[in-house]
Amino acid sequence: MKKIICIGREYGSGGREIGEKLAAVLNVPYYDKLLIKKAALESGLSEEYIARTEESPVKNFQFLSGNLYADMAVMNNTFYLESQITYNAEKSVIEKIGAEGSGVIVGRCTSNILPKEKRLSVFIYADKTDKINRVSERNNISEKEAVSRIRRVDRMRRQFFDFYSETPWGQPDSYDIMLSSSHFGIDGCVDILLNSIRQTEAAGNE
Question: Domains in the chain, please, with CATH?
Answer without folding.
Answer: 4-198 (3.40.50.300)
